[in-house]
Amino acid sequence: MAPTRFDLLATPPLPLLANFYPFRRGEIAGPHWSASDLYLATTQGTGVVRVGPERFTLEAGSLLHVPWSAPVEYHADRRQPFVLIGVHLAYDAWSQRESSPPLHARAGTDFARRSMQDPPTAQPFDGPFVLPSDGTSRCIDLATELAQAFSDHADVDRSARLRALALRFLIEVRAQRRGAARSADHPAAGTVRKLVSWLELSLASPISRPEMAARAGMSETALAAAFRAVTGASPIDYLIELRLSHAARLLRTSTLRVGDIARRVGIPDIYHFSKLFKKRKGLPPLRYRARMFP
Prior knowledge:
Elements: E1 13-22, E2 28-34, E3 37-44, E4 46-51, E5 54-59, E6 63-66, E7 72-76, E8 83-91, E9 104-105, E10 129-131, H1 139-151, H2 158-184, H3 189-201, H4 209-216, H5 220-231, H6 235-253, H7 258-264, H8 270-281, H9 285-292
Helix pairs in contact: 1-2
C-alpha cells in the first residue's frame, strides 16, 4: 500500500504524458484505466466523463481529477465535443529525470471499483473532483504548456522544464481546490458567484467598481472584502484576470486577430491589452499563440 501522507517536496510531480485529444462529435472512448494520476483540462466543448461509479460533466475551462488507475470512460457531446488535455502524473524524487508513458489497460475494467490498482506512492488527492471554470485559474494554461513542452523533444532542458511546469500545475490545482472549499462557506458566496456570472457575460463592456457594487447591493468596501474572501482577489483584479484568461482561450482556440480579441474582452486599446497580457501571462499575445501552437 502507498504511504498515506503526500509530501510535495519529497515526491514532486513527474509528467508521464501530456497531450491534446480533440474528440469527434458523439465519440465514446473507453472504458479503460491508466497507471497515473490523471488531470483532464477542458479547452473547449463539453461532454461527460465517467470515473468509477461517478459521472462528471465538463465544459470549457473546467478541470477533472481522475485518481490513480480509476476506471474511466469518455462521452463527447454530439454538437460541441470537448477537446481535452490529459496530464498524466506520477510522484517521484527530483533525481528521477525521465519516466515511461503510463500503462493503459482495458481488460477487466470494473466501474464498481474506484481504483484498479494501488498507487506506488502517496497521492495528493484521494478521489475524483471537478474544478469548474472560474475564469481566472491558470490550470488550463499550465496544462497547455505541459502538452507543448512534452512534445518538444529538441529542448535540451525538456526534463527540467517538465518537472517545473508540473510542480506549478499541481500547486495551482491545490490552491484552486482549497479556495473553492473556503469560499463555499462564506455568507456572501452566493452574491459573489452571481456577480462573477454577470462579469463573465459582460466582458466586452466597460465595468466600474461602483457598477459592480450596485449590482451586488453592497458598498464598494463591503464588496471588496467579500469578493477577496470568496475568490482571493479584489473585484478589479479578478475582472482583469477574467478578461485575460478569456483572451488566452481565444488565442488558443481561434484565428481572431489580436485587436479583435482585445475588443471582445473589453480592453480595446491594443497597446494596453498587449502590455497587460505580457505582464499576467508572461508572453505578448502573438508569441503566446505561437508557443501554444507552433
